[in-house]
């Protein structure tokens, strides 16, 4: 697959996941996660936006040859956090749903943790951001 094809697939996966988040947050919750234990919904948010951050990291890396793992992680976490804020705003218009800053913070924490994990993983593998190829030099950053 060409680099452009791989980037298109990666961005398509991220966009599809964002559409899924939007669709699910458009529905009224039948059984809130708090039934399991207090604040269980925060874990759902952390996981949900962690996955989004990983998908965005892959998409950014596939379309940004030569970009640093740290830069990709930062951009992925920021984009996922912004999407989380927009999703909370969207939920404020959905009957039976509420928008909370706490949920957005959980979204952001999940996005940042996942992006950092991807950056560390890429760094330990010694791969460049573009195609996963090995790098032989270090910039010391």
Q: If you had to describe this structure to a student in words, what would you say it looks like?
A:
The protein has 141 residues and is mainly alpha-helical. The chain has one domain. The protein contains 4 helices and no strands. The protein is globular, with a radius of gyration of 17 Å. The relative contact order is 0.17.
Task: Please state the overall shape, judged from the principal axes of the Cα atoms.
Answer: globular
Structural class, by secondary structure, is: mainly alpha
Major sheet: size, sense and barrel closure? none
Kindly state the number of beta strands.
0
Q: Provide a count of the helices.
A: 4
Euclidean distance between termini CA atoms? 31 Å
Radius of gyration: 17 Å
Number of domains: 1
- Percent of residues in beta strands: under 5%
The pLDDT mean sits at: 86
Helical coverage, percent range: 55-70%
- Identify low-pLDDT runs: 129-141
List the secondary-structure elements in sequence, H or E: HHHH
Task: Summarize this structure briefly.
The chain contains four helices and no strands. It has helices at 3-25, 40-63, 69-91, 101-125. Helix 2 crosses helix 3 (69-91).
What labels describe this entry?
single chain; 141 residues; mainly alpha; 4 helices; disordered C terminus
Layout of secondary structure:
Blueprint: H1 3-25, H2 40-63, H3 69-91, H4 101-125
């Amino acid at each position: 697959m060409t680099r452009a094809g791989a980037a298109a697939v990666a961005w398509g996966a991220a966009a599809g996941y964002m559409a899924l988040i939007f669709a699910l947050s458009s529905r009224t919750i039948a059984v809130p996660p708090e039934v399991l234990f207090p604040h269980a919904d925060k874990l759902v948010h952390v996981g949900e936006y962690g996955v989004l951050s990983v998908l965005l990291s892959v998409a950014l890396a596939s379309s940004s040859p030569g970009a640093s793992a740290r830069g990709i992680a930062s951009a992925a976490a920021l984009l996922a956090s912004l999407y989380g804020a927009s999703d909370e705003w969207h939920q404020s218009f959905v009957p039976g749903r509420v928008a909370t800053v706490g949920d957005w913070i959980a979204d952001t924490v999940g996005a940042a943790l996942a992006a950092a994990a991807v950056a560390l993983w890429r760094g330990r593998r010694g791969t460049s951001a573009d195609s996963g190829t090995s790098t032989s030099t270090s910039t010391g950053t």
